[in-house]
Amino acid sequence: MSEQAVLHSVDDRGVATVTLNRLAVNNAYDDALIQGLHDAMDALAEHRGLRAVLLRGAGKHFQAGADLKWIARVAAQPAVENERVSRATAMAVHRLNTLPVPTVALVQGGCFGGGTGIVAACDVVIAADNALFSIAETRWGLTPAIIQPQLADAIGVRQVRRYALTGERFGAEEARRIGLVHEVVALEGLAAAGERILGQLLQNAPEANAQTKAVALEFAWGRVDEAVVARLAAQHAAKRLSAEAVEGLASFVEKRPARWNPGG
Description:
Number of strands: 9
Strand order of the largest sheet: 1-2-3-4-6-9
Number of helices: 10
Low-confidence stretches: none
Order of helices and strands: EEHEHHEEHEEHEHEHHHH
Strand content: 5-15%
Largest sheet: 6 strands, mixed
Shape: globular
Mean pLDDT: 95
């Protein structure tokens, strides 16, 4: 039996721990992981007394972005299936962004592509000093459209324009400087730092926290509703079916530079 892609549990404080759990591929997302996030949020919505959510990635890396082999298989499917996949992914990040309880992400190792959108959707992000980030979808002929609203809120349009266009990797201190993470700690202190933040959150009134978060989102730049999600998902899916994406995904599978890469 295969591993469960997303694990979730709630302790006696009302703190949920949600763990991305595709260890073999560094928690890269596919249909199972996206559905697992939806299932976890469905379950947590039914949990009375929920106070906070702690989001983690199992193993050495937080989240390696999209599973590009899976993306290549999706791209071979009809347009309607591609749009379904993009919409499900966009809605998972949107739902995480709008959870009515505080969310804390603990990031170690790689956090790439969709992983940056996931952490941008969390209220508090703590990174280990070995964390490494990138928004590199365009390298493969894809776009990060479905996570750009959350990224724009977290790091600002100016930084999105740099890092989503260059695709370059950047470390934990740069992520802190631009606002993607709030704090950088030694890897061995990551769990303790998360507990410290949870301790702060649990001192506060639950309804007051929920209302404060709702007002903050009301004044966010990336004001996203289901209509916006649908539009971005359609754009995201259409790009996956483009000739550029076909070439980019082929270059990944064949381990060669894409035709637009002058180093090829």
